[in-house]
Design a protein that fits this description.
Low-confidence stretches: none
Radius of gyration: 27 Å
Largest sheet: none
Number of domains: 2
Order of helices and strands: HHHH
Mean pLDDT: 78
Helix content: 55-70%
Number of strands: 0
Number of helices: 4
Distance between the termini: 71 Å
Length: 101
Amino acid sequence: MQEANEPSAHSATTTKSETIQTDKQFMKTKAVISSALLILFVATARGQRASTPAEIRQAETDVPRLAEVLGLKPGMSVADVGAGFGAMTIVMAKWVGPAGR
């Protein structure tokens, strides 16, 4: 006789229809998550704006000082993490030149 906490031989195996059902559930979940991320991305992008001329002018003042402090040279690679509206990114890209990234 089978104990209550022991799986039966039938329940230990997964049928093809159960596998297909599980795959369908996974695909639905994946689609819902992907849709939510896309909506979040679009909503975030709508809130973005371009840098203002004043922000660009300020970045043009700050970038050479920042480059000096960090020891950056034209042609180097730079990552602007948390770039905000991108004023520093634009000015830094011009500063590192075509060989830089």
